[in-house]
Automatic annotation (TrEMBL):
Organism: Paracoccus benzoatiresistens
Domain Acyl-CoA dehydrogenase/oxidase N-terminal: 60-139
Keywords: Oxidoreductase
Top-rank taxon: Bacteria
Record protein name field: Acyl-CoA dehydrogenase family protein
Length: 433
């Protein structure tokens, strides 16, 4: 079971022990892995949360400049590399940090509280960098990850193009949107439908085959078109692939849920990794909004108020309610991922209901977060309205985050099916006992 300890400034930290599992990728010797870890950081046994806290002040200072640039500043990228945060979800044998998922999520929360765009970029890069390592062939992994410096991945893994099989590999083209964190990435992942004589290839369940193809950034043409309401510093630019060839082993099925490496955590699949990342960002934006409204509430008195906002009974009531919502969503999230990782590393195989809960959790947390941030923004008055405003940026970033397809609430109707089946089975079992 997880061992939990409470931190007044960030809720509870879940500390766990990693257990080992399956096959080994020959991408780096133990000596090379140790050298890579030394290059990442000399910080020894620091958790991902501790690493994130160490660089969070810099991230906060650079937030406005990141918005102006449309991507994280070079200083922030360098700090994340030095702290090793891009490689938190890579196995130790390859030079990564192999951190518990809950530790990663707390790090994403911490960076997102410093700057939503930086947290979003980090979670996209950290989860993206784990995907080809988990699901590509051992030969591809040895090539991609076997250099002197570990790579950073990004890209749109959903289908934006189409490809056909050739003797050299998959050959295709495509146009992709929202490649978060791409402008400082070394490799890009891109989803492609596989076509057979202009007919879309299908999986046994009837869904289309979508191969995630990994290519060096030099194969990609970026567009300069990132002009949006929120999450402006994520560098989520569009990009194009034209007539590329992706060798066998450098692409994999997007829907696969069985990792090829030793660490069983990868069995949560691409969808599980993505849900965890997005949830971490939403938690961070809630945390920062609550922090900002607390500062504002005791910093000045609104016109016509007899005392400062923080001493108003209605504000206190609503703040207590929304602060509880933050902790409830956070505790639900950390428990879900801690229990999932324990289950996988004990040799378990996730059921459809277990997988549905990743999406259930991310949608639920975003709904809660939107309400919490809106409350804080509304109570912030003109200080939240006038730029530059940290609370105003939280509002814009949060409501940009709610537009992602992964948190579309209509998906709840499909998510409910396996979860209802689980409840029905448990009810029937009790009735027959």
């Amino acid at each position: 079971m997880p061992i939990r300890s409470f931190h007044p400034d960030g809720g509870e930290t879940v500390r766990r022990t990693i257990h080992r599992g399956r096959s080994v990728a020959p991408a780096a010797t133990e000596e090379n892995a140790m050298n890579m870890q030394n290059k990442i950081s000399q910080s020894g046994s620091e958790t991902m949360l501790e690493r994130a806290r160490r660089i969070a002040p810099l991230v906060r200072m650079e937030a406005e400049e990141s918005e102006r640039l449309g991507t994280m500043t070079p200083k922030v990228v360098a700090a994340m590399k030095e702290a090793g945060l891009f490689w938190m979800l890579l196995e130790e044998k390859i030079g990564g940090l192999q951190a518990p998922m809950t530790d990663c999520m707390e790090a994403w929360e911490e960076i997102s509280a410093a700057d939503g765009s930086a947290g979003w970029s980090l979670m996209a890069n950290a989860t993206g960098t784990a995907v080809p390592y988990a699901f590509c062939s051992e030969e591809a992994v040895a090539d991609i990850y076997g250099g002197e410096q570990l790579p950073v991945m990004a890209g749109m893994l959903g289908p934006g193009g189409a490809a056909t099989e050739t003797a050299e590999g998959l050959q295709g083209s495509g146009k992709y949107r929202f490649g978060s964190g791409s402008l400082h990435a070394d490799w890009l992942g891109s989803g492609m439908f596989v076509m057979d004589d202009k007919i879309m290839r299908k999986l046994p369940d009837g869904n289309p085959v979508v191969r995630v193809c990994w290519l060096p950034r030099k194969k990609v043409v970026f567009e300069s078109d990132w002009d949006v309401l929120g999450l402006r510093g994520t560098g989520s630019v569009d990009y194009t692939l034209t007539g590329v060839t992706v060798p066998e082993g450098y692409h994999h099925e997007r829907a696969t849920t069985r990792g090829l490496r030793e660490w069983r955590l990868y069995d949560i699949g691409i969808a599980g990794l993505a849900c965890a990342g997005h949830t971490g960002v939403a938690l961070g934006l809630m945390k920062r909004a609550l922090e900002e409204i607390t500062r504002i509430a005791f910093g000045k008195k609104r016109p016509a108020y007899q005392t400062v906002l923080g001493e108003q009974p209605v504000f206190r009531h609503d703040f207590a309610y929304h602060e509880a919502s933050y902790h409830a969503a956070r505790d639900f999230t950390l428990r879900l991922y801690a229990e999932t990782q324990d289950f996988l590393e004990a040799g378990g195989e996730l059921t459809p209901a277990m997988r549905a809960r990743f999406r259930q959790n991310v949608i639920y947390v975003h709904k809660v977060a939107a309400e919490v941030v809106r409350f804080c923004y509304t109570m912030g008055g003109s200080e939240a309205l006038r730029n530059p405003s940290d609370l105003g940026r939280c509002m814009r970033d949060m409501y940009a985050a709610t537009q992602h397809i992964f948190v579309d609430t209509i998906a709840m109707q499909d998510i409910a099916v396996p979860i209802l089946d689980e409840w029905k089975a448990a009810t029937s079992e009790r009735a027959s006992a």
